[in-house]
Amino acid sequence: MIFITLEHILAHISFSLILVVTLIYWGTLVYRIEGLSSSGGKGMIVTFLCTTGLLITRWLYSGHLPLSNLYESFMFLSWSSSVLHIVLEVRSRDDRWLGAITAPSAMLTHGFATLGLPEEMQRSGMLVPALQSHWSMMHVSMILFSYATLLCGSLASIALLVIMSGVNRQVLLGAMDNLFSRSILTNENFYSHEKQKSDLQYTFSFSSTNYRKCQLIKQLDNWSYRAIGLGFSLSTIGTLSGAIWANEAWGSYWSWDPKETWALITWTIFAIYLHTRMNKGWQGEEPAIVASLGFSIVWIRYLGVNLLGIGLHSYGWLEP
C-alpha cells in the first residue's frame, strides 16, 4: 500500500514538473530570457529522478521490470524521452531549443499514461509465462528506447518542414516585391529566369531572419539524422532480440503478427530515410518528408495495434 501511494505521488509530481518544463522551453522560442532554458534543464533532471523513482517503486512491489502493460510502457517511454533530453543538454549546450521537442514528447506520453488510461489499465499484474524471459526485458526496453529516439527525430523533421515552408513563402513574397519595384522603376516587365533566380538569392542573403531560420533548419536536419540513426540501430537490436524471444516463447522467429508486420514497415521507412541521407546525399526537405511519414508509422505500430487488441503483442484498453 505504501509503495502504491508513493508511486501515485511521484507520478503526479513528475507530470506537473514536465508540464512546467514544457511551457518553459516553449517560452524560450518566443522570449530570450537569460537562465530560462537552464531552469528548464534543471526541471527535467528532477522530472527524470521522479520518474525513475516511480519505475523503481513499481518494480519493487510488482517483482518484475515495469514493462508488462501499456501504462508501464508509456511511463518507460516518457522516462526514455527525459534521458534523451538530458544527454542532448550535456552534449549540445548551444542547442537548448531542442528541449521544445523532447520535453513535450515526455509530457504527452506521461500525461496519456497518467490521465488517459483507466485505473484498471494502470494496475500491475502477474506476468504470463511468455513474458518471464530475459529476452523480453531486452526486447521491450530496446524497442521503447528506439520509439523515443525515432519519434523525437521525426518531430525534428516535421519542425524542419514547417520552418522551411515559412522561409520559402517569405523569400518568394520578398522576391515578388523586389521584382515588382524594379519593374515600376525601370519599366521592365520581363526578367529572364537567371535574373529572377539572382533576385531570389539576393533577397534571401540579406534577410537576417531567414538566415537564422536557415541555420536552424540545418541544425534540425543534422539532429534528426543523428537521432533517427540511433533509433534505427536500437530498433534493429530490439527486433532481433524479439525474434529470439518469440522462438523461445511461441516456437517461431516470425509469425507475421500485426505488430511484427508494422515493425517491418517501420524499419523499412527509416532504412529508406538513412539510405537517402548516406548514399544519395539528400538533405533538408526530401528526407524530412520520409521521416515525417515514419512518425505516423511508429504510432500506428506502438499504439494503434495495441488498442485494437489484435495479435499476440496487443494490450487491450481495459485489460493489462
UniProtKB/TrEMBL annotation:
Transmembrane segments: 12-31, 43-61, 137-163, 227-246, 261-276, 288-312
Membrane topology designation: Multi-pass membrane protein
GO terms for MF: heme binding
Keyword terms, alphabetized: Chloroplast, Cytochrome c-type biogenesis, Membrane, Plastid, Thylakoid, Transmembrane, Transmembrane helix
A single Gene Ontology CC term: plasma membrane
The Cytochrome c assembly protein domain, residue ranges: 67-313
GO BP: cytochrome complex assembly
Localization, UniProt: Membrane; Plastid, Chloroplast thylakoid membrane
InterPro entries: Cyt_c_assembly (IPR002541), Cyt_c_biogenesis_CcsA (IPR017562), Cyt_c_biogenesis_CcsA/CcmC (IPR045062)
Principal cellular location given in the protein's record: membrane
Keyword Membrane: yes
Subunit structure, interactors included: May interact with Ccs1.
Entry's family note: Belongs to the CcmF/CycK/Ccl1/NrfE/CcsA family.
NCBIfam families named in the record: cytochr_II_ccsB
HAMAP family listed in its UniProt record: CytC_CcsA (MF_01391)
Job description of the protein: Required during biogenesis of c-type cytochromes (cytochrome c6 and cytochrome f) at the step of heme attachment.
UniProt name for this protein: Cytochrome c biogenesis protein CcsA
Originating organism: Larix potaninii var. chinensis
Gene that produces this protein: ccsA
